[in-house]
Please model this.
Amino acid sequence: MSYAYLFKYIIIGDTGVGKSCLLLQFTDKRFQPVHDLTIGVEFGARMITIDNKPIKLQIWDTAGQESFRSITRSYYRGAAGALLVYDITRRETFNHLASWLEDARQHANANMTIMLIGNKCDLAHRRAVSTEEGEQFAKEHGLIFMEASAKTAQNVEEAFIKTAATIYKKIQDGVFDVSNESYGIKVGYGGIPGPSGGRDGSTSQGGGCCG
Amino acid sequence: MDLASRYKGVVGMVFGDNQSSNEDSYIQRLLDRISNGTLPDDRRTAIVELQSVVAESNAAQLAFGAAGFPVIVGILKDQRDDLEMVRGALETLLGALTPIDHARAQKTEVQAALMNSDLLSREAENITLLLSLLEEEDFYVRYYTLQILTALLMNSQNRLQEAILTTPRGITRLMDMLMDREVIRNEALLLLTHLTREAEEIQKIVVFEGAFEKIFSIIKEEGGSDGDVVVQDCLELLNNLLRSSSSNQILLRETMGFEPIISILKLRGITYKFTQQKTVNLLSALETINMLIMGRADTEPGKDSNKLANRTVLVQKKLLDYLLMLGVESQWAPVAVRCMTFKCIGDLIDGHPKNRDILASKVLGEDRQVEPALNSILRIILQTSSIQEFVAADYVFKTFCEKNTEGQTMLASTLIPQPHPTSRDHLEDDVHMSFGSMLLRGLCSGEADGDLETCCRAASILSHVVKDNLRCKEKALKIVLESPMPSMGTPEPLFQRIVRYLAVASSMKSKEKSSTLGKSYIQQIILKLLVTWTVDCPTAVQCFLDSRHHLTFLLELVTDPAATVCIRGLASILLGECVIYNKSIENGKDAFSVVDAVGQKMGLTSYFSKFEEMQNSFIFSPSKKPPQGYKPLTRTPTPSEAEINEVDEVDEMVKGNEDHPMLLSLFDASFIGLVKSLEGNIRERIVDVYSRPKSEVAVVPADLEQKSGENEKDYINRLKAFIEKQCSEIQNLLARNAALAEDVASSGRNEQSQGSEQRASTVMDKVQMESIRRELQETSQRLETVKAEKAKIESEASSNKNMAAKLEFDLKSLSDAYNSLEQANYHLEQEVKSLKGGESPMQFPDIEAIKEEVRKEAQKESEDELNDLLVCLGQEESKVEKLSAKLIELGVDVDKLLEDIGDESEAQAESEED
Ligand SMILES: Nc1nc2c(ncn2[C@@H]2O[C@H](COP(=O)(O)OP(=O)(O)O)[C@@H](O)[C@H]2O)c(=O)[nH]1
Ligand SMILES: [Mg+2]
Model:
């Protein structure tokens, strides 16, 4: 149960793009073709390793419908990472990215790492958004980008881990004050309590106590 | 509820009132001074005055309402720098929202505080404004704001939940308050507890904001279960978060784990004193544990995995040890705590074979005084003075034995009667006593001092041990007990001993009938054992019927007006089991005799009516509420009070019923299901037996003829004897018929008064007529089918004949074909031989030539390819040589390198195969 860091993620994007499936593939390594519509927010967790350090990911899967937006917004600020998902076979889910991004920028902390995921890449024959367009959008808005498939598991691990690696790097670079939990990061055993804490040798108050 | 319109009405009424209208103008003046005053000091005095007026009377609160809010909100919005004004404004607001106690005296008066809450919370903006005040530096500002929010929440819960949910970072701010100074923290805790009630989305966000960590750190800080009411508040908040959200349960399990909650149950050293607060804290923590054990309140089918995972993890984290410590070993824990603990243990092992085995392997005590935990629990069951505790601990054995053949066998294996104890040693002194010995000792404790209470508790445990387990039933049936006074009587089977206790209990009961001394459950529980034991077990029926007195007694019990509905019903079921599981052919003990005895004693109608009466009683009625309902602990209950309340509640429900309310818990769903299914079988079987009396005289038509060589006299005598037998049988049947007619007639007589019995009797008649008609129908149908079958078989036979002929023909042509094939084959073989031998080389010249040509060509081609390869290899080899030389020059271990390359390519080849 002990971890060096704990990162909180949220998964956002239109309904039906495969957010819940991506989470299930990542936490349980399985694909469930038919499952319930997410109501509000669901939770999943998994341990990963980055730089030989155990890192716990707490992931909140949100409902995409407009009626839940005000609820899901409450999760933005406390998240260190967000997976913004669209469906490569449904153009409109790509078109809505800007509005999702706007929401995130408005409610999240400025340093939140956002990973753009073009999901369902196993359905290449029904593709409606090209890889280049995805890349282009990500580049324009400073996001990391990957196409993935919750069905075949292609790039699913990678997407979650790459996001974590980016956050980890930001910590190393001293971007966050990790003693402040509102960034969605917690220091556990063996984590460096941020550059400042590391220098003067004191351990941070917020972390480590409850691993 | 729309209070605004009512408010206007009331204000009108208030204005109509002289005194109030004075108050109103006074408040108007104050508000005027506050909003239009130019001297800061005067404004401050005005708000202090306003605050005290509003806090004093309902009328002032009413008068303040609509006019006051804009002024106060204005201060909070625009004059944040004027701390004193802000504080005053908040205090006034709080006063306007707090119900005034003595206002309750006048019941007709409208609650001004309620209406003010409604007015204020109507605007979500106001809530947002209040939430923003939580970020102020000043302690009092935050403190009053929290109190105002709590007051609003109490009065308009839904609206406030919505407003907070839609305010960006609203919940975050409240959560931050948990890390504030103690007073604020406690206030925030209360607020959050109210806020999270039945609001799933808020529950999740609160958890997202790290509620679990914060709650457990506060609990730890406050000293765990030894802490004060703050710990209770923390646990209540925790329970709100976990009660109906499997998502939150998973989160707790996957991140912090269950240790923090389990460790609250850990007693430090030997605890002698359980204060009221400690008891409540422990009960709250046990409630949390229970939620985790049960998964979500409404279990969706797919989400079972969460429940099972919770149970597994809880036991991994040593929960069982702490529970056993709390419920079994700690003798000072209050009964309520011990009961809840047993419930948790029972649920923890329910349907979880691994946890069951872990419990079975647990031992308690130290050094030489260790004994299996299950034995300790049994001892508690036999000895406790609390009925609740008996029932709670009984539940552990119920879940342990359910669908656990091995566990039952293990328990039953120790059921070996000990030689009669010379001095009556006490159960508690002997930790070396086996489970079975203790149980038998308990069962027989009625012998010495008529202590049937202990006996019936042991009977309850035995019924779990033998339930659905034929081997255990047989094993227990073989137990023979010495007679208490060896000089008198012979050894007695355990089963019969228990029947005897039932008889003793019922005779005691009828003696005590006049005394209104409480309800008993002894007979019911013993009957439950006998009913459970006899299911599917002819040996038990035999054992029961071995003594003629038993049947007589049971018949008496069924008709005993002093017995309760439940006792009569269960006795009828037992009686019925003696019919359906009866394998005896012995006269007087077979199924027919039992049915006959029932018919003679009370008539079938009256017998069947016992079932109906029981099914309609509160214990069996489907509307009975599940014994484990959610019931929040109040903030300062005394545990004993809580217990009493619980019993009262049940009593309320069963008023006018003679059966003990505890039976609600002891007669679990599976037993009730069993009784219902038995009832159906019994009805069917009895009708069956009754409508087909076994004939005493076999009628064989040939017997009626005069045998050859038989003289007339002998023939006549024989016929006479035959007729006599038949005559007596007819007499017999007539008597039975008369009894039945009387039964019908008497139920007809009761028709007006007892509709249900009448219905039962006509049902009976119908059933019988129906069965005869059915038989007739069946027979004629059978005849038809036999006829049809015959025709079918005949036609089948003829078609088979045809088929056989055809097959024969086919076979012949097949064998012809085979022969010619063989011939052809023979020729071919000859040809091959001759070809090989070169006897006739010119027979197939073309083929041979072509073959040869092709062979040569192929050879040439592969030779060419080989050459190419060799050339390539040579080139490669020379390359390797050159490179090796170069590498050696550079100081590299070339041999090693080449070896590695070999390994790699092998590995690659392997993985490619995968
Ligand atoms: N072919 C394919 N289907 C997917 C994939 N991911 C999700 N789906 C399907 O898309 C539908 C919506 O998925 P869901 O996870 O509920 O979407 P959400 O509303 O974003 O949570 C489901 O029917 C899934 O079976 C994928 O990678 N490939
Ligand atoms: Mg979903």
Chain A is about 30% helix and 25% strand. The pocket of magnesium ion (ligand 2) is lined by residues A 19-20, 38, 61 (CB under 6 Å).
